[in-house]
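Notes from the 1:1 (GR / supervisor)

We went over the backlog. Supervisor wanted to see one worked example end to end before approving the batch request, so GR pasted a single chain during the call. The sequence is below; no edits were made to it. Supervisor asked that the structure be written out right there so they could see what the output format looks like.
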Amino acid sequence: MLSACRAVVIALGLLSVAGASPLLAQSRSKDDLVIGMTQFPANLHPSIESMLAKSYVLGMARRPFTTYDADWKLICMLCTELPTIENGLAVPEQAPGGKKGIAVTYTIRPDAHWGDGTPITTDDVQFTYDVGRHPEGGLSNFELYRRIHKITIKDKKTFTLHVDKLTFEYGAINDFQPLPAHIERAAFAEPKDYRTRTRYDTDSTNPGLYFGPYRVTEVAHGSHILLEPNPRWWGKKPAFRRIVVKTIENTAALEANLLSGSIDYIAGELGLTLDQALAFEKKHGSRYDVQYKPGLVYEHIDMNLDNPVLADKRVRHALILSLDRQAISDRLFEGRQPVAHGQTNPLDWVYDKELPQYPYDPKRAAALLAEAGWTEMKGGFRHNKQGERLSLELMTTAGNRNRELVQQVLQSQWKQVGIDVRLRNEPPRVFFGETVSKRKYSALAMFAWVSSPENVPRTTLHSEQIPSPTNNWGGQNYTGFKNKEMDELIDAIEIELDREKRRLLWQRLQRLYAEELPVLPLYFRADPFVVPKWLIGIRPTGHQYITTLWVEEWARAE
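Structure output shown during the call:
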């Protein structure tokens, strides 16, 4: 999953800066494209932290081996053919410990090269695997590399991954992001320092780091990233000679820049809030096409379960029961962003339609708080017998008007039942890069997860995925949720190939999630794509693999 959002502050200071962008300093031609978005990537390493802003940029400069397309189908991008049991490229086998595993074989495109001309080979695959398997490697999805217990190299382009589990999505290696061994091996000489020494931060315009239609040629920290065509790209020639991705964290300023012509397009995935887009469409619909794309974007509040107040399930239930989430959806979003009753989206086939829900019930919330020991009211807020006030801090990304507005509504609603909620926000690069990823938030953190179809929530809910210094802050279980049944359900879902049996397991997972409530569900987002009528080729996917993975299809209408 990706946080929207969702990355390292130390690394930020190491991103290269090459002065003012020529695109920003002089007049632009029709072959240039300036994109605005609300976040600046915390780093450019494809596998250290997950952040939507970074994925957006790297979608133009890299390609995964496999991904889901806009039709929610698994496809090859860097590989030549998806392995299946039917075509013989996926072969069930016995894994260590007697488990049922599988060997999956991939061939790298023969014409695939890094931007400096070096061929992409199995040497890069082996190096990436070595980084991912190292306990101090610090890659976000370390579980992926743990599962691959061996790699067999056939030749420079073909390799076999031996996986210790035969899962229902055995052909998908979307998160196995190849690293350039000829550049990154030196940075990995001291694994514990890799997060700050990776060349994606210290030499981020090195052409050998990229292999997509574009490559990063300039990084101005906090301001913009410039991309130019990659001469070694093997696919369709991209239409724009330069693309600037410009960061404007305030969404009102983002809209103003679009109308003034300072930017040409706002990234739909990280752009206008829904209320802005609705108003914008009424005023400027003749110049822009506005599409509201519902998708697998889950706005929620992570709760730090190490906080003794939140460790009490009764308090967690009280928090959700005291929120009128339907009113928030109706009044702020004109009902376009439906209330979420769990982390699984109704658009996904595994969604449980009979899932228990939490209606707005402040009386029940008050009773639960009293039961949990928060009985005395002083100055409008609850206190326990020790005289401690029921006070929690709610954090989110600064400058996002939607979130800050929702934040204030939540604060007001919680106050009605005697909960003192303090608001404190940070720039996205700090919030995701340090505070959330290292579990430094004290109580509540509001952001979004962006997932793929039937995405098993291992990295966010499994107890082995809690970030810590021991795993160099790998994993995305930022709440610190530990539940034996949840672990077992996640393990069972992944290896169940029968769809009906898997559906029943998903049903139990969703109900356990609702019972334990490690996270406060808010709503499922419908991201507004506000596209100038002259820009064609942008096709929203509705999941975490975003539009820029097909940037070579973007063009100016004739």
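Supervisor's comment: Residues 499-516 form the longest helix (18 residues).
Batch request approved.
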